[in-house]
Amino acid sequence: MAPAEHKEVVAGRGLAGAHTPTAAQLSQLTARLQATATRRLLVRPAETSSSGAPACTPAKLAAIAAALHLQVDRAQRLAERQPRIVAAEPEELCRRVAGLAAALGLKRRQAAFMICKQPDHLLTASPSDVRGAIEELARELGVPFADAAAWAALAPSVAKRPPGALAARVRGVGVLLGGPPPRRLLAAVASEPELLARPLPALERRLDALRWLLMVRAQTARRAAAERPGVLLMSPRVMANKVRVLMAILDKDRRAVGVLAAKCPRLLRCDLSAVRAAHAALGRLTGRPERYVFAMLCHDPRLLVARPEGVVARVARLRAAARRCPDWAAEWARLTPAVTEECLSRGWAAYARLDFLLASGRAPGSCMAEVLLARPAAFEAAWPGFSAWHAAHGEQLLEARRQQRARIGAQLVRHAAAAAEVARPPWRRRATRHVVLQWNQQQQHQQQHAQQQTQAQAQAQQQQQQQQQQQQQQRHEQQHEQQHEQQHEQQHEQQQHQQHKQQEAELEQVHIMQLQAQHSSPQLSAVRPGSTCPVSAGINGPCAARSCS
């Protein structure tokens, strides 16, 4: 008799000798004995491993893995931990998975996950009983059945717990987290099932410690715990260490770090070495001072926990677009921290808009921040043609990737053929060499065809560039002619103005000479009759002024 079975029999004897067992105790003992007998019958002693867990053949293990939607290695580890999985037949597992999925309205993969987590309960209870328990739990919580079933798919242990007690515990956790909506509460409890196993007073003490360490209000601490319930499972010492490390990374006091951690509680649950690298990279990539980076983080601290590759790629795209458009370069230099953070938080579809405007030549005069932050419908209305361009651009990228995979596959095939050729005996290499040569010729023909297509595309691009250059030259020539005409008109106007000035000067001189002649009229009366006055003789001459004097 196995040690576990011997303990069960001894426990039964002691129970019978001590006092008369109740009906519930007898039913429990009977169920244990039946399970032991079933395991004896289904698993022979020769099929047990050294650890006592039932073993199975590779074929049965593969069938179990297929029935439970698992990989073979994971199915093997599961079989070592759960002997009931091995005891059941693969066909029975398939029927159980299909029945549970149909009863709860879930996918088969989700139902298989539930059976992997709770095989003892879900392989013995009927799907209708499980559905009844989930329906009662949904009524107790006041949520739709689909939400309760989705919660059970994430935390299968709720299917075997009493619905009334479980609902009361969930409501207590909801009060502790500030009373979030039922769906958010179920999502929080599903993300951390251990919350239902901890006493509520212990969770309250953790919440008080979080509020004291972050130096925030109680409602703010509750909101942070509701967003990331895992912080309530951390010890106060670990919380304090996390806060101190964040203070050292950001070079800020506890209150400033507490504000960031309250807005993004994930900072308390992530690897702080990655946070340190992200904080250093933000200033280096954006080229902004420390206070600017901290202002960005105050707007949304999730930049510290985002994927570093994504942040680097987004900053590189923004700076590359700014270099290609002078207007965007000037705008990038004067962006506020909040707008910069929002631009870095956008998806790749928004960054494709920048490429669209640059490719179509409509980037000058547009606002880079407005382009990134605009809604899809508003952007399509303001800049028509983006959807078609984006689809065509995506097809080009997919085609380039397919060609790259084809080239890599061709290289692998060529290397494999060469290795096989070397491994073959000499008297069998001729036929293989002929096949390899034929295949190489086909590949060369395909490469030549691809090169011709590439050259044709390059020639078409060159022709387009030449046409653009010719158009630019024509525009420059027109501008030069316009400038030449303007200069000629200005010179003509200047000459006319100078001639007009000269005429005015001559008229003034004539007027002066006339005045002088009138002034010298008394002297003219003293001249003898018949004599000629030198002034009257030379009044129209060039020396009239000197003769008068």
UniProtKB/TrEMBL annotation:
Annotated GO MF terms: nucleic acid binding
Q: Where is the signal peptide?
A: none
Annotated GO biological process: DNA-templated transcription termination
Q: Where is the composition biased (Basic and acidic residues)?
A: 474-495
Q: Which UniProt keywords apply?
A: Transcription, Transcription regulation, Transcription termination, Transit peptide
Region called Disordered, residue ranges: 467-506, 518-549
Q: Member of which family?
A: Belongs to the mTERF family.
Protein's recorded name: Uncharacterized protein
Which organism does this record belong to?
Monoraphidium neglectum
